[in-house]
Amino acid sequence: SFPSDEVIRKRLLIDGDGAGDDRRINLLVKSFIKWCNSGSQEEGYLQYQRMLSTLSQCEFSMGKTLLVYDMNLREMENYEKIYKDIENSIAAAHEKISECKKQILQAKRIRKNRQEYDALAKVIQHHPDRHETLKQLEALGKELQNLSHIKENVEDKLELRRKQFHVLLSTIHELQQTLENDEKLSEAEESQETQMEAEAKQ
């Protein structure tokens, strides 16, 4: 029957890595006891050969264990180196990510500035340049000066017309007075003539 898992686990715990060292030591002790109790030289030599064979197996197993141990040490050193390389790579990746984030922020700022510059450029394009604006201002100044002269001339003419109109009104008033006086004089003369005619008839 096959041994249970518990039995296998106990054997592995006793035997170390399961290479049979404990069994070989037990065989070596038994062979040594038999060699000590051997009655004949042939039996003693046979036990001696068995002990040598068992010692060789133990030495081989020990050498193998040492090689495995050295290999495990080198493997651990290699893993530590790989782990450090991975840590360095992760740190470098974090630095690169941080730098990329800074570059992205800078690119966003540059893009925003360019958009603002383009918007300002479009606004500026709708307005005339400085030289053209100065020319327009100069033309407007001249036109304003001409309008000012025209205004003065118009005001002078208005003042002249006002004076002439005042003289005309005065003349009309005087003429009206004269006409009224003439009319009164004519009425008086007519009345006097009528009275004289009436007196002559009597």
From TrEMBL:
Transmembrane stretches, start-end: none
Ranges where the record places region Disordered: 181-202
Main localization, broad class: nucleus
Family, as annotated: Belongs to the THOC7 family.
Protein's name in the database: THOC7 protein
Function noted in UniProt: Component of the THO subcomplex of the TREX complex which is thought to couple mRNA transcription, processing and nuclear export, and which specifically associates with spliced mRNA and not with unspliced pre-mRNA. Required for efficient export of polyadenylated RNA. Plays a key structural role in the oligomerization of the THO-DDX39B complex.
Coiled-coil regions listed: 76-103
A biological process from GO: mRNA processing
Keywords assigned: Coiled coil, Nucleus
Pfam (any one): THOC7
Record has Nucleus as a keyword: yes
GO CC annotation: THO complex part of transcription export complex
Compartment(s): Nucleus
Source organism of the structure: Regulus satrapa (Golden-crowned kinglet)
